Amino acid sequence: MFHRRLKEKGIEIGLFLAAATTVVVLLFICIFLFRDGYLLFETSSFTGFITGSSWYTASTPPRFGILPLLFGSFLVTAGAIAIAVPLGLAAAIYISELASPKIADLLKPFIEILAGIPSVVYGFFGLVVLVPLIKDIFDIPTGQTALTGSIMLAMMALPTIISISEDAINAVPLALKEGSLALGSTQWQTIYKVTLPAALSGISAAVILGVGRAIGETMTVLMVTGNMAIIPGFPEGFLDPVRTMTATIALEMGEVPKGSPHFHALFAVGSVLFITTFIINMVADRIKRKYKLKEGL
Amino acid sequence: MDPRTTEKLAFCFLRACIWIVVAFVAILILYIVIQGYSIMSWEFLTEMPRNRMTEGGIYPALMGTAYLVGISMAVAIPLGVLSAIYLNEYAKESRSTWIIEMAINNLAGTPSVVFGLFGLALFVKYLAFKPSIISASLTLSLLILPVVIRASKEALITVPQEHREASLALGVTKWKTISSIVLPEALPGIVTGIILSIGRVAGETAPIMFTGAAFFLPRLPESVFSQFMALPYHLFILATSGLNPMETRPIQYGTALVLLILVLLINSIAIIIRKHYRKKLHR
């Protein structure tokens, strides 16, 4: 009996340790990222990094100002969200409120495929189809623009936005909708005035996670946004090439000597990116926990 | 405006939105299928690249991706399933549970390129695994871990509480109950989740760029400490580097198609398993 209990306890501890590896991994990511990023400030100043408006890695001395990359990421992400939120919300309303169960069952695999397509395939599709299209439509010298990135990122953020919004809409009590319909409202009035406001906090979690998705996406933006490290204008910057934080890391890490200031600068950019998504995740987590929503795609 | 008219207009808009989404997926798939179809052949899949990658097949990239999937899943599956069992069957509402769940959510939302940096710092540099299959696989396994945990947990939750209680009431120990009652019942759900995450591992590019993926390596890796070629990185390199990316366009379409088929195949298998399982459940 004693032996059996000991064995049970041992199993529980073993399982706990397995689960605890996730915490260890997160801690390790912080340590390794921040340590290599911090080393940049032995050769350059911290304020120069955070407030610097030029990213010239080849000049002497090199200038590692993160602002062009930060604004590049913000611009592309803002564009993506402006496209993905109305589209995703509309799709979620359609699937959960209007579509017959049969149609909804047909649509869901489409959303899953959208989530499953590798980012490099999106990037490739964007490069060979959307880039020439944007160039022709707007009659500009290159189709590799922030807008191109925004459109592709919007498509990639859709599954996250649709699946969590759908869950939030489904979580609205039926009694609320029935009450509204019984008062003579049309179905749309009910959706617009009752269901959506009731689901708003869940939908906000969906939007926040969509932002996280878009800001962290690498391959697609790398392939379609042209990668020019200049602070973009607004809104005309949408038709110019931009460079995001993710693309900078992916583009330059392959060529830098390990341990050089440039190497550490890329880790510093990675740290900023990590802190940004960390905050986004914590906020979304809080909302999801409060309203007991699922994890989403 | 008359509420009925408004409703009609609004529903038209909703329908238009869903059509845009469906059309986008359909166009993307059709375009790559049509463009990549002509180069697809047995030789394309089984031959080495030749003549500066402008001719020949994608065999080493295909095999590289297979190695990556194999090793990273071998690490992530046991770790992920065991973590999910702990969280769903043992964990109580406590601070440590909250920390673990927060860590999982954060890992799931961490950009893949950050995992790439981490893999470079930890596996390649600190542990001195060099850019290699093992460095890249371990990086990918950490990236996919939260996905496996979530999917497994989702499957465990669906097992009715009564089944556990019935077993425990017969004097069966908790672990025996989990291993012979709960796990078998949750298995189809867990397997579905794992299959979907295979697609994710196969398609990731950013985490392997600095941890071992090679530009051009017309042979199979000799050991887990060798560099390798991989499908997504191969597509990226062909599409963006070199003097004339147009020269290799057919091979690019072919590689994209292989990746796409992989994902579609994986999704259909997962959907079939889920359908089959649901039918069994509702019998």
Automatic annotation (TrEMBL), chain A:
The chain crosses the membrane at residues 12-34, 70-95, 115-134, 146-164, 191-211, 263-284. It is a multi-pass membrane protein. One of its GO terms (biological process) is phosphate ion transport. GO terms for cellular component: plasma membrane. Signal peptide: none annotated. Coiled coil: none annotated. Keywords: Cell membrane, Membrane, Phosphate transport, Transmembrane, Transmembrane helix, Transport. The keyword Cell membrane applies. It is found in: Cell membrane. Residues 70-284 form the ABC transmembrane type-1 domain. It holds the Pfam family BPD_transp_1. PANTHER family: PHOSPHATE TRANSPORT SYSTEM PERMEASE PROTEIN PST (PTHR30425), PHOSPHATE TRANSPORT SYSTEM PERMEASE PROTEIN PSTC (PTHR30425:SF1). Belongs to the binding-protein-dependent transport system permease family. CysTW subfamily. Part of the binding-protein-dependent transport system for phosphate; probably responsible for the translocation of the substrate across the membrane. This is Phosphate transport system permease protein. It comes from Methanohalophilus euhalobius.
From TrEMBL, chain B:
SUPFAM superfamilies: MetI-like. It is a multi-pass membrane protein. It is found in: Cell membrane. The chain crosses the membrane at residues 12-38, 58-87, 107-127, 133-151, 251-273. The keyword Transmembrane applies. Keywords: Cell membrane, Membrane, Transmembrane, Transmembrane helix, Transport. It comes from Methanohalophilus euhalobius. This is Phosphate transport system permease protein PstA. One of its GO terms (molecular function) is phosphate transmembrane transporter activity. GO terms for cellular component: plasma membrane. Belongs to the binding-protein-dependent transport system permease family. CysTW subfamily. One of its GO terms (biological process) is phosphate ion transmembrane transport.
